[in-house]
């Protein structure tokens, strides 16, 4: 409440500077918003000089103070507060305000010096050119203005570099991050900078350079675990699966051991670079991966690379984590690598089945069946997919999102039945004709499609297309068992039905040729065989063009349903065609 006095203002501004630094350091979080203390301090300066600025914004206050206050004793305290104001604005991403402020600070030092050129790099030029006034020997500061200048330079380069990354300007990002790497910062921030450089090199098609940056990040701070995650992605891009799996294993062990309280060694500064730099790009690059998510990635990559024994081990570990309450540990959002939990169960069942643990696979599938039993209505009706569905789109009798969720549950349950059928078959008896296969086909009849475009698969929802594929696999699997049992007519109906669902499917078409041949319908079999030979390359091109990979949990079923290469059948058909051709010519 005392009136401002020029004689005591240097001490008053110094106390304000120190108290604000302590407040920032104690919060240990990002600095944001206006610095009300600085605003009031500037008003006190104007009051002591006989001026007023009650109605001015903070930017206008700084302009008025630095242009009108020429008292030599106030220059150093004002410059310190200016650096503090710059930190506030940098944290708030107000780069234009910082540029304007440091233009004023520079002009206050040397009115004759020309301003720097425009653009984002102007901020770095102004910060580097800013001459910090000498501190008196009697002044006690908790953090020097020179120290704050170095932090501002590093943070400005880092922040602008991340903005260039978000804009897709990789060369500018690389230049600014290299500038930041040579600045004053903690080990944690330096490791983050090297990680960002590694990500940039990867996006620029330089994987080896990316690995060098990521290794450097880990050398600086092994607690920078996102560097390990990005390194695994680079190894995957290079096709070095062993190195990728080793990296993921190290990452999992490090996450298991790491403590949230563990912190990297940092300089003894109340304001640090990490307090000032926060962007969506940084949050995305350094998203926290829970150990459970890394465990799933290990399982998934092992299954994709056909390392079945390792995949089974990792999937069982992951399912154990589920029993321990994984739902509370893993954010199941778009940023997570985890699929929906029933899909994880189905992938585990696929791994168990491929490892020869058929009864375990059946048990895992039964869990999916039981959990989805009450979530599927008796009938689901769908039109062809709208071109641009809106949030309020209604199909048949309910909202699209609710119906699609029910459809997902139906996909998972029918896939579980399909796996159970194949697992029972592998147990040694011809059981594919028994309950799992029949229940799979029965469930599929719950989906009714209507609309003008349902005959073209491109117009259908992805879940419906997947159900059609599961139905095809069920029919081919059941038909192949009918064929093995000598029940050719039932097999013929299944293969014909399969081709109605998916015209041109190589497995169904090949099995149909075989059953026709065994039914002594040789001319029809030969004709279909010729068409099949011509269409195989076209079908491969069509699938490549559509680019619709099937879920990982279905790949083993696709492999089991494929038609085994039958040289004798092909030779018999070729002999038949040759004989027929000779008979016609004679």
Automatic annotation (TrEMBL):
<feature type="domain" description="Bacterial transcriptional activator">
    <location>
        <begin position="453"/>
        <end position="539"/>
    </location>
</feature>
<protein>
    <submittedName>
        <fullName>Fanconi anemia group G protein</fullName>
    </submittedName>
</protein>
<keyword id="KW-0732">Signal</keyword>
<dbReference type="InterPro" id="IPR019734">
    <property type="entry name" value="TPR_rpt"/>
</dbReference>
<dbReference type="InterPro" id="IPR039684">
    <property type="entry name" value="FANCG"/>
</dbReference>
<feature type="repeat" description="TPR">
    <location>
        <begin position="472"/>
        <end position="505"/>
    </location>
</feature>
<dbReference type="GO" id="GO:0036297">
    <property type="term" value="P:interstrand cross-link repair"/>
</dbReference>
<keyword id="KW-0802">TPR repeat</keyword>
<feature type="signal peptide">
    <location>
        <begin position="1"/>
        <end position="25"/>
    </location>
</feature>
<feature type="region of interest" description="Disordered">
    <location>
        <begin position="380"/>
        <end position="399"/>
    </location>
</feature>
<dbReference type="Pfam" id="PF03704">
    <property type="entry name" value="BTAD"/>
</dbReference>
<dbReference type="InterPro" id="IPR005158">
    <property type="entry name" value="BTAD"/>
</dbReference>
<feature type="repeat" description="TPR">
    <location>
        <begin position="191"/>
        <end position="224"/>
    </location>
</feature>
<dbReference type="GO" id="GO:0043240">
    <property type="term" value="C:Fanconi anaemia nuclear complex"/>
</dbReference>
<dbReference type="InterPro" id="IPR011990">
    <property type="entry name" value="TPR-like_helical_dom_sf"/>
</dbReference>
């Amino acid at each position: 409440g005392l009136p401002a006095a020029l004689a005591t203002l240097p001490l008053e501004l110094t106390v304000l500077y120190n108290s604000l630094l302590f407040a920032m350091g104690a919060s240990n979080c990002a600095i944001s918003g206006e610095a009300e203390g600085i605003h009031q301090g500037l008003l006190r300066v104007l009051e002591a000089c006989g001026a007023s600025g009650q109605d001015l914004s903070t930017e206008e206050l700084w302009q008025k103070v630095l242009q009108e206050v020429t008292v030599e004793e106030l220059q150093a305290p004002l410059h310190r507060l200016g650096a503090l104001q710059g930190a506030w604005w940098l944290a708030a991403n107000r780069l234009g305000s910082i540029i304007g402020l440091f233009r004023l600070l520079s002009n206050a030092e040397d009115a004759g010096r020309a301003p720097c050129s425009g653009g984002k790099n102007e901020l770095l030029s102004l910060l580097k050119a800013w001459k910090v006034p000498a501190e008196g020997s009697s002044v006690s500061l908790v953090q020097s203005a020179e120290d704050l200048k170095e932090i501002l330079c590093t943070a400005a380069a880092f922040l602008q570099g991340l903005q260039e990354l978000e804009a897709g300007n990789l060369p500018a990002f690389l230049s600014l991050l290299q500038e930041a790497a040579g600045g004053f910062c903690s080990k944690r921030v330096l490791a983050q900078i090297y990680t960002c450089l590694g990500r940039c090199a990867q996006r620029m098609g330089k994987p080896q350079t990316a690995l060098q940056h990521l290794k450097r990040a880990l050398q600086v701070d092994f607690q920078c675990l996102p560097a390990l995650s990005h390194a695994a992605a680079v190894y995957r891009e290079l096709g070095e699966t062993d190195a990728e799996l080793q990296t993921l294993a190290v990452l999992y062990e490090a996450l298991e051991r790491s403590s949230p309280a563990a912190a990297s060694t940092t300089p003894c500064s109340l304001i640090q670079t990490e307090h000032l730099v926060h962007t969506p790009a940084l949050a995305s690059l350094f998203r926290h991966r829970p150990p459970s998510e890394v465990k799933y990635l290990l399982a998934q990559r092992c299954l994709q690379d056909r390392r079945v024994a390792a995949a089974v081990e990792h999937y069982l570990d992951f399912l154990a984590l589920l029993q321990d309450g994984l739902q509370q540990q893993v954010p199941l959002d778009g940023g997570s690598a985890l699929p929906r939990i029933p899909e994880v169960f189905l992938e585990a069942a696929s791994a168990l089945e491929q490892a020869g643990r058929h009864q375990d696979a059946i048990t895992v599938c039964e869990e999916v069946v039981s959990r989805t039993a009450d979530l599927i209505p008796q009938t689901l009706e769908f039109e062809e997919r709208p071109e641009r569905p809106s949030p309020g789109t209604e199909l048949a009798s309910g909202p699209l999102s609710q119906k699609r969720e029910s459809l997902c549950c139906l996909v998972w349950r029918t896939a579980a039945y399909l796996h159970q059928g194949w697992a029972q078959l592998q147990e040694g008896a011809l059981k594919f004709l028994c309950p799992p296969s029949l229940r799979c086909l029965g469930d599929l009849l719950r989906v009714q499609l209507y609309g003008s475009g349902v005959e073209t698969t491109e117009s259908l929802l992805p879940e419906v297309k997947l159900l059609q594929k599961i139905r095809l696999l069920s029919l081919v699997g059941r038909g192949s068992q009918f064929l093995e049992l000598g029940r050719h007519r039932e097999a013929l109906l299944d293969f014909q039905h399969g081709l109605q669902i998916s015209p041109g499917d190589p497995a169904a078409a090949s099995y149909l040729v075989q059953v026709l041949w065994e039914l002594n319908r040789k001319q029809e079999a030969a004709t279909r065989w010729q068409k099949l030979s011509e269409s195989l390359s076209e079908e491969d091109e069509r699938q490549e063009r559509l680019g619709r990979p099937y879920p990982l949990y279905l790949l083993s079923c696709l492999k089991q349903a494929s038609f085994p290469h039958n040289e004798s059948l092909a030779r018999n058909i070729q002999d038949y065609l040759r004989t027929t051709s000779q008979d016609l010519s004679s």
